[in-house]
Amino acid sequence: MIRSMYAELLKLRRPAIIYGAAGAMLGFALLATVLTFVTATTAAAASFVGGDSLTSTVGQLGQSGGLTRGFTIAAGFIGLLVFVLFTTSITSEYGLGTIRVLLLKQPCRARLLAGKLLALLACVAAVLLAAELLSGAAAIILAHTRGIPTASWFTAEGLRHVAGDYINALLVAGLFGTVGMTVGVLTRSTPLALGIGLAWLAPLEHLIQLSWSGAGSWLPGLVFDAVAAGGTTSTTYLRALITALAYAALALAVGTASFLRRDVSV
Amino acid sequence: MTSPIDAVNSPAASEPADLDQKKVEKGAAAASAVGLVDPVVETRGLTKRYGSRTVVDALDMQIPAGVVAGFIGPNGAGKTTTLRMLLGLVRPSAGGGLVFGRPLHAPAGYLPRVGALIESPAFYPELSGERNLAVQAALGGHTMTRVPVVLERVGLADRGGDPYRTYSLGMKQRLGIAGALLGDPTLLILDEPTNGLDPAGIRDMRSLVRSLAEDGPTVLVSSHLLVEVQQVCDWLVVIEQGRRVFQGPTARLLAGHDELTLACEDPADLSRLQALVARFGLTATVGAGRLHVALADVPALDTSGGLTRLLGEINRAAMAEQLTLVELSVARASLENRYLALIAEPTTEGAR
Predict the structure, then answer these.
(1) CB-based contact (8 Å) between A7 and chain B?
(2) Does one domain contain both B55 and B180?
(3) Tens-digit pLDDT profile for chain B (352 aa)?
(4) What angle in degrees, to the nearest 10, is found between the helix axes of B270-278 and B306-320?
């Protein structure tokens, strides 16, 4: 598995990955942070937790979680990018035919898949760390321009927020990535995988949510978003987390079983 | 044992005699192994079905150690599917087999000793040839020092740092073979390595395959180019519609199918010449102003130097009869003709 992981990391040093996927994640984090601080209103402060709204108040941003507010909002969008990255990392192996080369060098398919998943997660973890640092730096600058107090950001509580939001963002990335990889393994086609995956996770779930109040508690994309947001008005963080982990476990089991059993005819 | 005909007639006039002799010796050695003591590859009833379509049909195949084996058959005969099953990429629907004595359903037990290029080479276009091989080396647990070695081996040392997308088709094929060589394999499986190559590329690939075989590994190569197979391979497996129609030394498939052609200065003398060769027990047919004699089952040729002696005797007899020969030649049986005959009547050779 270590060999598979190392091989995957060698591949990830491609410009398309570094400048494309990583750049997009950093860009999302920065954009979300800028918009959060620029559009912050002066209404009365409330807790971030349990709120669906993407807009914040100046008062909220001055609280201990204000430093990573933009990063937290970006985490859900970054999740979609991670979905795309993990999906295409599998489907492109089928598209290029490199999957057969990989399987000749590493016939133990479970190890190959696990190494690939872990390498991608390690890569995403590094990019998320960079994204949080970038977002935090932007937040400090923007807070000064808007006169937002930052004293509580650098308390123990504030630093707990920084660590907790990073772990949560990584968890959300892992959830999206696991599902993305499974969709890639099942479809073996980039257009098909992205067509199905993004259509479901983005517009379809939100359309269903309009007519079904329970959608936010049960549909995977909305549940993952709820985990990223630390809970929503539809579901608590804990419930969303349990549901999301169940989805990820199911996806991992289905994806692994398919990868282990199906013929490679490309 | 191979007949003297095979020893006398080289597969191609351009081939060095020592190489040809080596091939015949390897074929003979392979022939003696038909009993088969520890073949490198052995399948029994190997079958692959996709729905109601049977792609590989109860295939029994054996590849002796140390040979260059040609795996030939028409498009859609099941060659690539068979190779994929040998490499653990595709699961057999029935039957099974052994590679290095390890079962096909546990490819991890034998794939570290196998190098393969299946269909077109597959690499990451943005990465250099060197980096692509490094990815494979890391995955296969090979030392990174093998990368420059195999690049040198396939003649890509100067271009290893260039992006794969800039490679010509011939370079891509060679990089594919370099990848297969990373683990210093004892079995090399090449699926259509000359596909899409121009004549110069085909010649280079033939030379490469030959030189690889001289390094010691058993080579199993599938190809449509029968001239190439005839020149390179000393063992053949021919399949048609997923079934084996021939297996054995190349020399055995070709034995007894050479043709003697005679022509005399005056075409009016052809009937006299026909009567003359009949005295040697040969049946000649007339065609295009020449006599054609199938050399199959001619007892006189079963001894060493039999063909050379026969040709000399015919020439002397013709001179004695005042017949001036302007052509006295032996055409080596072509694999193409034998292959087409096999495919046309698979059941006649199927028992071999």
Answers:
(1) yes
(2) yes
(3) 333 222 222 333 333 334 444 544 555 455 454 445 579 999 999 999 999 999 999 999 999 998 999 999 888 889 999 999 999 999 999 999 999 999 999 999 999 999 999 988 999 999 999 999 999 999 999 999 999 999 998 889 999 999 999 999 889 989 999 999 999 999 999 998 888 788 888 888 888 888 888 878 899 999 878 888 888 888 999 999 899 999 999 888 887 777 889 999 888 889 999 999 888 888 888 888 889 888 765 555 555 567 788 888 999 999 998 989 999 988 877 888 888 888 776 554 443 4
(4) 130
Q: Where are the domains of chain A?
A: 2-261
- Out of A3, A100, A108, the one facing B89 most closely (by C-beta) is A100
Interface test with B, best of A105, A109, A261 (most B CBs within 10 A): A105
- The CA distances from residue B44 to B56, B59, B279, in Å, are 12, 6, 49
Give the distance, in angstroms, between the CA of residue A71 and the centroid of all CA atoms in the same chain: 11
In a shared domain, residues B38 and B63: yes
Q: Is A144 on the interface with B (CB under 8 A)?
A: no
Asked whether residue B339 is domain-assigned, the answer is no
Record the pTM.
0.80
Q: A263 and B89 in contact by Cβ < 8 A?
A: yes
Q: Kindly identify which residue of chain A lies nearest to residue B182, measuring between CA atoms.
A: A105
Place of tokens 């359309």: A207
Beta strands in chain B (DSSP E): 41-50, 53-63, 68-72, 94-99, 102-103, 114-117, 187-191, 218-222, 235-240, 243-249, 259-264, 284-287, 290-294, 325-331
Is residue A98 within 8 angstroms of chain B, CB to CB? yes
Point out which residues pair with B246 in neighbouring strands.
B238
Which chain A residue lies closest to B141 (C-alpha atoms)? A3
| B273 and B184 housed in the same domain | no
Q: Within this chain, do residues B175 and B315 fall inside the same structural domain, yes or no?
A: no
Q: Out of B254, B288, B307, pick the residue that ends a domain.
A: B254
Which domain-ending residue is among B254, B279, B305?
Answer: B254
For residue B316, tell me if it sits in a domain. Answer: yes
Could you tell me if B94 and B10 lie in one domain? Answer: yes
Minimal Cβ distance to A15: which of B87, B88, B126: B126
Q: What is the spatial distance between Cα B182 and Cα B174, in angstroms, rounded to a whole number?
A: 13
Residue of B102, B118, B139, B143 to mutate, interface with A, max A Cβ within 10 Å: B139
Q: Are residues B92 and B138 in the same domain?
A: yes
Q: Of B116, B126, B127, which is closest to A104 when you measure between CB atoms?
A: B116
Chains A and B form CB pairs within 8 A to the count of 74
Chain B residues close to A100, C-beta within 8 Å: 84, 87, 89, 118, 122
Which tokens go with B136? 């494979």
Residues spanned by the domain of B312: 259-331
ipTM: 0.84
Number of domains comprising chain B: 2
Chain segment A176-226, per-residue pLDDT in tens: 999 999 999 999 999 999 999 989 887 888 889 888 888 888 999 999 988
- Is A19 in the B-facing interface, judged by CB distances under 8 Å? no
> Distances in Å between the alpha carbon of A99 and those of A184, A266, B118, B149, B347?
12, 8, 11, 24, 38
Say if the Cβ atoms of A14 and B122 lie within 8 Å: no
Note whether B248 and B104 are same-domain residues: yes
What CATH number corresponds to the domain at position B297?
Answer: 3.30.70
Distance CA A37, CA A55 (A): 9
- My answer on whether B275 and B202 are in the same domain is no
CATH of the domain at B37: 3.40.50.300
